[in-house]
Amino acid sequence: MAIWAHPRTGTLYSISLPANFSGIEVSVVRLRSGQFWATGKNFSFFQIPPRIMPTPYAKRIAIMYQNLGNWSSYYFKVPGYKLVAPVVGFVAYDSSNSSTIGNRKVKFSIMGRPISVHFPLIDRREGKNATPKCVKFGADGSFTLRNMNKSHVCVTEGQGHFSVVVPKTRAEGRIRFWVLGFSLGFVGLVFMGLIIAATFRRKKMRGMEKQTERGVAFDTFWIGGSKMPSASMIRTQPALENDYVP
Predict the structure, then answer these.
(1) Does 114 score more than 90 pLDDT?
(2) Where do the TM regions start and end (predicted)?
(3) pLDDT class for 189, splitting at 50, 70, 90?
């Protein structure tokens, strides 16, 4: 994974990303393992104390830092919780070759204090009365929740991605419930209105038929499936216009 020509040990380099990943920050620093063991290193959101050794051992290591920013909730989710800080992470590589980061990942064997992750900005507008929790995301999509030992600080014994979450409020669930209930209720009212309108039309037609039958006393007969009016067949008797007989 080549990203530099002549990197300086201990210098943090920013990595340019494509425009469609705007908002994500990636940086990398290359360190000698001996110096890393003796002094540790503080970069970005992470404070890495001394007495940490890469496993398997590498003469030099490269630590890549990531800040997902406004993409955090797109890539990482915790059911029942809401992110209130960006997802940040780091991963270490064997960088014994001076011109590349390396493709082999290394783990950290911690002999002293754990690594601390600092979140200077936590959005407390969400869940003001809730207790924030630290969350660590694994590479396989798993996650682990922990209590915060200090304000805005989480601790870890290894690399990965980290953030802060609070439980989702019941109000959010109630809003979704009422939106769904209103939608179903509206559909039900429309359906009921159609049934009432159809019933009213049928009653009106029956009333008109009865009114017609009462107004004119016609006999009826059936042709196929239709009822037709028929006047009574009464033959008029012939009569003379006067009594004169020739």
Answers:
(1) yes
(2) 177-200
(3) very low
Residue 168 has which token pair? 């989702």
Judge contact between 41 and 143, C-beta under 8 A: no
Q: What percent of the chain has pLDDT above 90?
A: 49
For the chain, the structural domain boundaries read 12-168, 172-229
3-state secondary structure of 47: strand
pLDDT at 84 > cutoff 70: yes
Alpha-carbon distance of 131 to 39, in angstroms, equals: 34
The span from the CA of 73 to the CA of 135, in Å, is: 13
Tokens representing 231 are 């006047």
Alpha helices in 27-88 (DSSP H): 33-39, 72-75
Per-residue b or e along 47-69, where b marks 16 or more CB atoms closer than 10 Å to that residue's CB: bbbeebbbeeebebbbbbbbbbe
Q: Domain 12-168, CATH 2.60.220 — does that match?
A: yes
Q: Is the pLDDT of residue 137 over 60?
A: yes
Q: Could you tell me which of 166, 67, 186 has the C-alpha nearest to residue 125?
A: 166
Distance CA 164, CA 153 (A): 9
DSSP string, 6-35: SPPTT-EEEE---GGGTT-EEEEEEEEHHH
Averaged over 42-71, what is the pLDDT? 94
Distance CA 69, CA 30 (A): 23
Burial of 136: CB neighbours in 10 Å, binned 0-12, 13-18, 19+: buried
SS3 76: coil
Query: For the residues 14-26, what does the mean pLDDT come to?
Result: 91
Mean pLDDT of the chain: 78
